[in-house]
Specification:
This protein has helices at about 10, 45-60, 110-115, 135-140, 180-185, 200-215, 235-245, 270-290, and strands spanning about 20-25, 35-40, 65, 75, 80-85, 95, 100-105, 120, 140-145, 145, 150-160, 165-170, 185-195, 195, 250, 255, 265, 300. A 5-stranded antiparallel sheet has the order 6-7-13-11-12, covered by helices on one side. The chain has 3 domains: about 5-85, Uridine Diphospho-n-acetylenolpyruvylglucosamine Reductase, domain 2, CATH 3.30.43.10; about 95-215, Uridine Diphospho-n-acetylenolpyruvylglucosamine Reductase, domain 3 (2-Layer Sandwich); about 235-300, Alpha-Beta Complex (Uridine Diphospho-n-acetylenolpyruvylglucosamine Reductase, domain 1). Strand 6 and strand 7 form a beta hairpin. It is of the alpha+beta class. It is an enzyme of class 1 (oxidoreductase). Keywords: Cell cycle, Cell division, Cell shape, Cell wall biogenesis/degradation, Cytoplasm, FAD, Flavoprotein, NADP, Oxidoreductase, Peptidoglycan synthesis. Its cofactor is FAD.
Length: about 300
């Protein structure tokens, strides 16, 4: 039974009717292709719609959760009670000289392509990272010797009450897979990147090189949330898992990738329960073998 369907008329005062979905399967909105239904899923088109939606949820004491592109998210099989706010339609990207201004829902690949088109260098590392730039700021996403902390000038964020703040790079407290955004539950509305002018051909070559490396080493043919675990200090999660003899280990449709042990994949219509059981099994095995605690990088929401 949907306990929040009666809110639709109120939400229609803020959002367009077609941007409000009831009992929406989260399989459609996560890279894992897993997850039960959200009571309501909304996709605001403007910052104002997003802010008003959050304020409505807070005022009405309705549980809500904000997602970008669902690339680093596992939704449990029972789904989410409340409102999922998806930022995918807040995706404008603007170039001003050597700066790129991107809305929080803009996909990293689109920002990377925009940088390439305008011969701006410094963002090549993000060309193949799935998901949105808002999520990338939240996690201080990085790859191939690059991180968001190296390119962010400032970000426009919203707190849990719908207040808008401007945070400069240092104020974002960007560390390994963490930030003030994550710690304080902020939402990234907009990001300004400071890049440098470069040669288009060199930028294109670097993107092509990183894309090739990613395709060779990562199991992109299967649904996943990217690297399942954070890198433990002094170790590599994938090597610990491989050295524990877990490459290819499966529980139901969930499996440790044969191609890269740091990835748990949805190999065959896995459930969230199976993914979580495999995560727990991997954590226990690595702890038993190496006395290292693996921490999940993927975010887990919803109910069983």
């Amino acid at each position: 039974m949907n306990h929040y369907s009666h809110l639709v008329p109120k939400l229609q005062e803020i959002l367009k009717k077609e941007d409000i979905l009831l009992d929406e399967s989260m399989k459609k909105h996560t890279y894992f292709k897993i997850g039960g239904p959200a009571d309501i899923l909304v996709t605001p088109r403007t910052k104002e719609e997003l802010i008003e939606t959050v304020k409505f949820c807070v005022k009405s004491e309705i549980p809500y959760y904000i997602i970008g592109n669902g690339s680093n998210l596992l939704v449990r099989d029972g789904g989410f009670r409340g409102i999922i706010i998806k930022l995918s339609k807040l995706d404008d990207v603007i170039v001003e000289e050597d700066k790129i201004i991107a809305m929080g829902g803009a996909q990293l690949k689109d920002v990377s392509n925009c940088a390439l088109e305008h011969s701006l260098t410094g963002f090549e590392f993000a060309c193949g990272i799935p998901g949105s730039i808002g999520g990338a700021v939240t996690m201080n996403a990085g790859a191939y010797d690059g991180e968001m902390v190296n390119v962010i000038e400032h970000a426009l964020v919203m707190d849990k009450e719908g207040n808008v703040l401007t945070l400069r790079n240092g104020e974002l407290e960007l560390g390994y897979r963490t930030s003030a955004v994550m710690k304080k539950g902020y939402v990234v509305l907009q990001v300004t990147l400071q890049l440098k002018s470069g040669e288009k051909s060199k930028i294109k070559n670097r993107i092509d090189e990183l894309t090739k490396r990613r395709e060779e080493k990562q199991p992109l043919e299967y649904p996943s949330a990217g690297s399942t675990f954070k890198r433990p200090e002094g170790y590599f999660a994938g090597k610990l898992i491989q050295d524990s003899g877990l490459k290819g280990r499966a529980i139901g449709g969930a499996a440790v990738s044969e191609k890269h042990s740091g990835f748990i994949i949805n190999r065959n219509n896995a459930t969230a329960k199976e993914i979580l059981e495999l995560i727990n099994f991997v954590q226990k095995t690595v702890l038993d073998n190496f006395s290292v605690e693996l921490q999940p990088e993927v975010r887990i929401i919803g109910e069983d």
